[in-house]
Amino acid sequence: MSTADLFQQHVLPTYGRFPLVPVRGTGCRLWDDAGKSYLDFCTGIAVCSLGHCHPRLVEAIRDQAGNLLHCSNLYQIPKQAELAEEINTHHVRLPGKIFFSNSGAEANDGLIKSARRFGHKHPQPDGSPRFEVITFRQSFHGRTLGSMSATGQAKIQEGFDPLLPGFRYLPYNDTVAIEAGIHPETAAVLLEPIQGEGGVNMATPEFLRSVAAVCKKHDLLLLFDEVQAGFGRCGDAMAWRMIAPEILPDGISWAKGMGGGVPIGAFWLNDRAIDDSGTPLSSLMGPGSHGSTYGGNPLVCAASLAVLQEIREKELASNALLMEVRIRETIRSWKLPAITEVRGSGLLLGVGLDPGLIPAPEGKTPALLVVTKLMEHGLLVPPAGPNTIRLLPPLNVTEAEIDEALAIVRKVLGEFN
Ligand SMILES: *Cc1c(COP(=O)(O)O)cnc(C)c1O
């Protein structure tokens, strides 16, 4: 039986899958079961930061697998401790503490729980807890009940109500709405500094600054979802620093690129004092407040440590910026009518498509049509909403690979006039 047949018989049909069957990868390249090769600018949706089967990552996984795959969070786990130190010292570069999860959705659930704890500790004037988390339209925070409820997109929530209460969605990049949008029960604001799934929309510096000011004024937690944008992808270790580096968040979530392909996520809480007696915010999530059997196990932490050290030592965030310039300049030079704009930062880029020029058949978006055509020509990219394709190559992608991929983009999009 073919892989597609097995899927149809045995796997829940939650994804509209392409027929592609990938079986092998190295660096920027992926091969399917028929031996055809692709340039992979999808990277498992911004996961394979170092490309496929990077020797340092493979070695770290082999080594750890031969020593100790898993043990409980009841015990001290050396690689988890080293990974937390690596992140705090070299990537966040702020005093704080980390909880390790298995995915981005779980990391965001952890931030939401932290906001609720904070709202109990700092209640409304009448003593009732604050609980509301403000998020934004077109956001994406995950698929668990909590992170789905936080997500500001109706299509993600359809058929699953009642949602978890305590979320309100405001327009993104709207400084007036955020300044007017705080209620007595509001405890936190959660946002993606660069929205990925929602179409690659970047927060403006004015917006991030007014969100930070509103949080300070109303004693709200400022929470950044860096699940897709974090760890070098946008040109800095942390995406918000590309926009307004002076801002100090209270919490951050990560996943995707931090593991390079192993399932790991995390959330971070600032050590800052939240009251006059000096209680650190990070202390609110104390013993018994949260947990995960797999979270931060030796295998995934050894892998993530190798990935983050490689990103830091090889300055891959800087490479992301250099490659961004090359991509933007090349695309600008084409002057293709089908391309409306390039959005994003570093190697989290969205290429906007003119839907009027791309005749998508019934039930298919322009982005899906273009993604399918690019695949036929040997380039893998994911869509981001109906009219945007994303370019998410590995952070160590070379100029030659960028040029090869862009030649395919030009050929495919050049046909729409
Ligand atoms: C992918 C993503 C998530 C969800 O991560 P999972 O690992 O799929 O649970 C959350 N937030 C953002 C910004 C994402 O891009």
Describe the model.
The structure is a single chain. This protein has 417 residues and is an alpha/beta fold. Helices cover 36% and strands 17% of the residues. The protein has 13 helices and 16 strands. It has helices spanning 3-10, 43-46, 55-67, 78-92, 104-121, 145-150, 154-157, 175-180, 205-218, 298-313, 316-334, 366-376, 399-413, and strands spanning 22-26, 29-32, 37-40, 96-101, 132-136, 167-170, 186-191, 194-195, 201-202, 221-225, 251-254, 265-270, 339-345, 348-353, 379-380, 388-391. The strands form four sheets. Strands 4-12-11-10-7-5-6 form a seven-stranded mixed beta sheet, with helices on both faces. Strands 1-2-3-15 form a four-stranded mixed beta sheet. Strands 13-14-16 form a three-stranded antiparallel beta sheet. The longest helix has 19 residues, at 316-334. The relative contact order is 0.16. Bound molecules: pyridoxal-5'-phosphate. The site of pyridoxal-5'-phosphate has 16 residues, from α5.
Compact summary:
The chain is α/β, with parallel strands linked by helices and 417 residues long.
